[in-house]
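Researcher: I'm preparing a figure for a lab meeting and need a structural model of a single chain. I don't have an experimental structure, so a prediction will have to do for now. The sequence is pasted below. Please return the structure as tokens so I can convert it later.
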Amino acid sequence: MDKDILKQYIDACEAVKETEEQIRQLQKNRKTVVVDAVKGSMHDFPFAEKTFRTEGLSYSAVANPGQLDREELILEERKAAAAQIKSQVEAWLNTIPVRMQRIIRYRDFEELTWRQVAMKMGRKATEEGVRKEYQRFFDEN
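Model: Understood. Here is the structure written out token by token.
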């Protein structure tokens, strides 16, 4: 596992969230009911005014219902691919030392500076020491 996959992890987490929102929006559009009212009068005397209420599905949902299914399937595939990257990185993180897990989380996932990482690590850690430890870990692996 290299540093690039860690960058992909962050994007994968965001992609899962964004794709879930897109799927919700697509499902909402599928259920969109359009309502309208029309006024008119009778043909014969007394020409009383009448109001007619109409409702139905929006044209995009009715015109090509298969298209919505295809779009939802594509979004589900995108979400599954991003979730797979996310789980691969999380499984890999469980195999490395806990100290390095913390450093990687702070530096790559939370995007803290080396100084902030050192402060969170505590135990007299310095920013240079933490940075070197991080570098050595990825040089060895």
